[in-house]
Amino acid sequence: MASSRGGEALARSPEPHSPLHRRPPVAAEGDDGRGEDQGAGGSVWADFSRRASAPVHRRVRESPLSSDAVFKQSHAGLLNLCIVVLIAVNGRLIIENLMKYGLLIRAGFWFSSKSLRDWPLLICCVTLPVFPLGAFTTEKMAQHKFISEPLVICLHVVVTTASILYPVYVIIRFDSAVLSGFTLMFFAIIVWSKLVSYAHTNYDRRILSKSIHKDDIHSNFPELDDLKWVSFKSLVYFMVAPTLCYQLNYPRTTSIRKGWVIHQIVKLVIFTGLMGFIIEQYINPIIKNSQHPLRGNLLYAIERVLKLSIPTLYVWLCMFYCFFHLWLNILAELLRFGDREFYKDWWNAKTIDEYWRMWNMPVHKWMIRHIYFPCLQNGLPKGVALMISFFLSAIFHEICVAVPCQIFKFWAFIGIMFQIPLIVLTKYLQNKFKNTTVGNMIFWLFFCILGQPICILLYYHDVMNRKVKL
């Protein structure tokens, strides 16, 4: 009886190698179980894997957007979607703007009739090279020891101060157009910065040469030779080179790429035109239909600021690309100037401090060389040296904007000095959350979305009020 039951059980149980007895293998990642089967019974297993009873859930897996897996996925498709949405939204805004205002841009939009009458500013701009010539004469007299060191310093102070006060006087005296005045002040500040670097560098060379034996100068420090200190050719090159820091020799390229220069000039014209289109078509109508941001309805002021923030951001990015990338590289190529680190990847800045160290490299290098390091060498703490650097930057931002507008309410000065608490805040948040995204978002929010539109509205309404009073 037992043997008969055992035989019946063996008869009822499936064979060990039959498809019903085998467990389906667990598929590797990316394997859907429909790959090529190997060995005996492969075709039978292939048929089973397509049946309704075949298992489809074989391992533990995370959803692609879960917190553990989101950074392991490629988001190129979502980035493409954002680009398409950005193009669609801006396209709709352009059509809406043209339907509402028509084409506002006009030929010669950069130059008003008043700008064309600003011949005193043109004369002032043409005569600015007088000040480098005065600095060169001072250095020549110092080289031949015709004047004492204190007198050399006094003459350089007079020359550099006059290079700023002269354009300020001309702009205010002849009530120039804002754009013309801004252009002149921009050039004047560049000349002032270069003259300070020229005087400071030569002063440091004289101090260094006095501490070194004369024989060592010729053998080990040829760059400190008196005969090589004051070179008119090196000064002329420095005054037109895309740098604010003076030195006798710069890294140079071997040739000029003429085709590349033409290509960059074409891009410069295109992006300058785009900048003008955004200003005329978007920014001007918005600010003309706005109120003073510190008066009236708060919600309306916030709406105007946010509406102005996007075109202002576009103009600011175009300005950065036109000046720091296109124009400075064109100038460097024509002069075969080799060091073209005019900016770093400031858009990835994790703190406000990091942004200011990467955004404008010519000014940053000038500040470090002629303001920050001298402060440290004189025993000042780093925090005080940083505040002095920002204070000087705030003064020249205010001069560059307030003098052409003839509005001295220190909006630009306050905006730059406000960067100091923002530096402390972004550093604190970065250390607290251990996250670089927070500081980067604060930079974009305060600097681009809120700061620039508010400054534009403040200066615009103050200028309009000034014109009404006149």
UniProtKB/TrEMBL annotation:
<keyword id="KW-0808">Transferase</keyword>
<dbReference type="GO" id="GO:0019432">
    <property type="term" value="P:triglyceride biosynthetic process"/>
</dbReference>
<feature type="transmembrane region" description="Helical">
    <location>
        <begin position="384"/>
        <end position="404"/>
    </location>
</feature>
<feature type="active site">
    <location>
        <position position="397"/>
    </location>
</feature>
<dbReference type="InterPro" id="IPR014371">
    <property type="entry name" value="Oat_ACAT_DAG_ARE"/>
</dbReference>
<protein>
    <recommendedName>
        <fullName>O-acyltransferase</fullName>
    </recommendedName>
</protein>
<keyword id="KW-0812">Transmembrane</keyword>
<feature type="transmembrane region" description="Helical">
    <location>
        <begin position="119"/>
        <end position="138"/>
    </location>
</feature>
<feature type="transmembrane region" description="Helical">
    <location>
        <begin position="441"/>
        <end position="460"/>
    </location>
</feature>
<dbReference type="GO" id="GO:0009941">
    <property type="term" value="C:chloroplast envelope"/>
</dbReference>
<keyword id="KW-0012">Acyltransferase</keyword>
<feature type="region of interest" description="Disordered">
    <location>
        <begin position="1"/>
        <end position="43"/>
    </location>
</feature>
<keyword id="KW-0472">Membrane</keyword>
<dbReference type="InterPro" id="IPR004299">
    <property type="entry name" value="MBOAT_fam"/>
</dbReference>
<feature type="transmembrane region" description="Helical">
    <location>
        <begin position="150"/>
        <end position="172"/>
    </location>
</feature>
<comment type="pathway">
    <text>Glycerolipid metabolism; triacylglycerol biosynthesis.</text>
</comment>
<feature type="transmembrane region" description="Helical">
    <location>
        <begin position="265"/>
        <end position="283"/>
    </location>
</feature>
<feature type="transmembrane region" description="Helical">
    <location>
        <begin position="410"/>
        <end position="429"/>
    </location>
</feature>
<dbReference type="Pfam" id="PF03062">
    <property type="entry name" value="MBOAT"/>
</dbReference>
<dbReference type="InterPro" id="IPR027251">
    <property type="entry name" value="Diacylglycerol_acylTrfase1"/>
</dbReference>
<dbReference type="GO" id="GO:0004144">
    <property type="term" value="F:diacylglycerol O-acyltransferase activity"/>
</dbReference>
<dbReference type="GO" id="GO:0005789">
    <property type="term" value="C:endoplasmic reticulum membrane"/>
</dbReference>
<comment type="pathway">
    <text>Lipid metabolism.</text>
</comment>
<keyword id="KW-1133">Transmembrane helix</keyword>
<keyword id="KW-0256">Endoplasmic reticulum</keyword>
<feature type="transmembrane region" description="Helical">
    <location>
        <begin position="313"/>
        <end position="335"/>
    </location>
</feature>
<comment type="similarity">
    <text>Belongs to the membrane-bound acyltransferase family. Sterol o-acyltransferase subfamily.</text>
</comment>
<feature type="transmembrane region" description="Helical">
    <location>
        <begin position="76"/>
        <end position="95"/>
    </location>
</feature>
<feature type="transmembrane region" description="Helical">
    <location>
        <begin position="178"/>
        <end position="196"/>
    </location>
</feature>
